[in-house]
Amino acid sequence: MSITVKDVEHVANLARLELSEQEKEQLTGQLNAILKYAEKLGELDTDHVEPTSHVLPVTNVMRDDRVRESVSVETAMKNAPDEEDGQFKVPAVLE
Amino acid sequence: MAPFDLRLQEVHNKLTSKELSVTDLVNESYQRIAETDASIQAFLTLNEDGARAAASELDKQLQEGGERGLLFGLPAGIKDNIVTEGLLTTCGSQFLRNHDPIYNATTVKKLMAAQSITIGKLNMDEFAMGGSNENSSFYPTRNPWNTDYVPGGSSGGSAAAVAAGQVYFSLGSDTGGSIRQPAAYCGVVGLKPTYGLVSRFGLVAFASSLDQIGPLTKNVEDSAYVLQALAGYDEMDSTSAKVDIPDYVNALNGDVKGLRIGVPKEYLGQGIDPKVKEAVLQALKVYESLGATWEEVSMPHTEYAVATYYLLASSEASSNLARFDGVRYGVRADNPDNLIELYRKSRSQGFGPEVKRRIMLGTYALSSGYYDAYYLKAQKVRTLIKQDFDNVFANYDLIIGPTAPTPAFRIGEQVGDPLTMYLNDICTIPVSLAGVPAISVPCGFADGLPIGLQIIGKAFDETTVLRAAHAYEQHTEHHKQRPQL
């Protein structure tokens, strides 16, 4: 399985990255090399092996459902690139 | 002897007897940084005013007497992916070059409770992706033993600052070897705790199922002290483990008699520098002389670990780094036409090449049609790698091998060849995938560059790891060597 510049463009779109032509070329070569190396995993029979997503035997960790102090709006906005009335401002989503 | 070459207990004795003040320690730190950091480039941000104010407070406390924190007065450096309220936290990335965090990481709060002093924030590969610090988007840190060489990474600044005597200890983070490998390259002690032992709250996430914070120090005893201050359950981290925290320092009794050590033949095979192999074999002789036994074992899935790691870590990273969209913090591209373009342009301008490469690899591995072949497959192989550890630990107390296959390499030598760069992590990655603890301690030199010995333990058995590392250190002189700067 080998990936093309077109595949790189598709994945870049999914990842919300804008790549130059040079970056696309370079990434196509590098990703192919890395994926070719990863094909090594195909040597192993894993049909009856459970996947490990996590090494600790904990699942669905819950906390008590109670109201707690949180950060203020002012604090939360401290690093905002653009804001208005205590809200993060972005370009119009709807025309 | 320079104050940072003293053991913690000795520093504290001198503070008690008034031979030293906390202000003296902080002065030592900034003076050393002024003398050496133009060539080492370990620091990204200094906290000079804050540190001096904190030092005066502690000196006042010293006059008044009373209880002192475990790490009282010790100058510390913090890797720049651990958030510090009011002190820039960039993750080595242009994307966060002005990021002023609104809270402290749990580990930072714990250091404050233990009364160490934050000297500044340490350089790293961008978002902890890299093994040489050449991926810092500001400037590369250099190896104090030879400034033409890399310090390792991604906690390269954390290792170099301790090696250069700029701070007493530092915090790093380790996802596939990022504490242990730079510790090995810089000739210091680096500990990656068991996954879940130390809170990740406030550690900017790279690969959440692998990331762990840990200490870099000049000796094993100090490593035990810092771990003592850091370890423990945190309700702010849903993967934090509820386990009893032992007395790590008390466990350092020098007794390794009867300890059974497994040495994986895969860790001393192809690609391992003969000088590194020789240093590891010499270390095993030290253990023999102390009454421990070792045998060669096999961990047959080792050769699959690097591929498994790069698929899993990159997949997790592609998801974690989706938050950097230019909306709530970080850089925002000028004049985007619409929201999607704002995301795209901000991310493309803010991220460096290695970060883009990993996001692309991870997005691909998780994308429709490839998920089973890459991501799920890698998760299954992770199970097999973990079983290799379970099998060895059924019969042995520790696993020992090299930390890295070679000593540090030259700056620029491996740039542009990501795969070769990734293979530097062959000995540390399997440990991360299994989630077990490991320490790197200095075990020799090759052509003037340090070599690291990796001691790996069972999950949550940091006491055995530290005890064995400490016993070795007491019978060798490698950790006492200092670079000439």
From TrEMBL, chain A:
Transmembrane segments: none annotated. Keywords: ATP-binding, Ligase, Nucleotide-binding, Protein biosynthesis. It is an enzyme of class 6 (ligase). Its EC number is 6.3.5.-. Pfam families: GatC. Gene3D superfamilies: Glu-tRNAGln amidotransferase C subunit, N-terminal domain. It catalyses: L-glutamyl-tRNA(Gln) + L-glutamine + ATP + H2O = L-glutaminyl-tRNA(Gln) + L-glutamate + ADP + phosphate + H(+); L-aspartyl-tRNA(Asn) + L-glutamine + ATP + H2O = L-asparaginyl-tRNA(Asn) + L-glutamate + ADP + phosphate + 2 H(+). Signal peptide: none annotated. It comes from the Bacteria. SUPFAM superfamilies: Glu-tRNAGln amidotransferase C subunit. InterPro entries: Asp/Glu-ADT_sf_sub_c, GatC. Allows the formation of correctly charged Asn-tRNA(Asn) or Gln-tRNA(Gln) through the transamidation of misacylated Asp-tRNA(Asn) or Glu-tRNA(Gln) in organisms which lack either or both of asparaginyl-tRNA or glutaminyl-tRNA synthetases. The reaction takes place in the presence of glutamine and ATP through an activated phospho-Asp-tRNA(Asn) or phospho-Glu-tRNA(Gln). Heterotrimer of A, B and C subunits. Belongs to the GatC family. This is Aspartyl/glutamyl-tRNA(Asn/Gln) amidotransferase subunit C. It comes from Paenibacillus mendelii. The lineage of its organism: Bacteria, Bacillati, Bacillota, Bacilli, Bacillales. The gene is gatC.
TrEMBL record, chain B:
It comes from Paenibacillus mendelii. Its EC number is 6.3.5.7. Residues 24-466 form the Amidase domain. Belongs to the amidase family. GatA subfamily. Keywords: ATP-binding, Ligase, Nucleotide-binding, Protein biosynthesis. Allows the formation of correctly charged Gln-tRNA(Gln) through the transamidation of misacylated Glu-tRNA(Gln) in organisms which lack glutaminyl-tRNA synthetase. The reaction takes place in the presence of glutamine and ATP through an activated gamma-phospho-Glu-tRNA(Gln). Heterotrimer of A, B and C subunits. It catalyses: L-glutamyl-tRNA(Gln) + L-glutamine + ATP + H2O = L-glutaminyl-tRNA(Gln) + L-glutamate + ADP + phosphate + H(+). NCBIfam families: gatA. The gene is gatA. The active site is at K79, S154, S178. Pfam families: Amidase. This is Glutamyl-tRNA(Gln) amidotransferase subunit A. InterPro entries: Amidase, Amidase_CS, Amidase_dom, AS_sf, GatA.
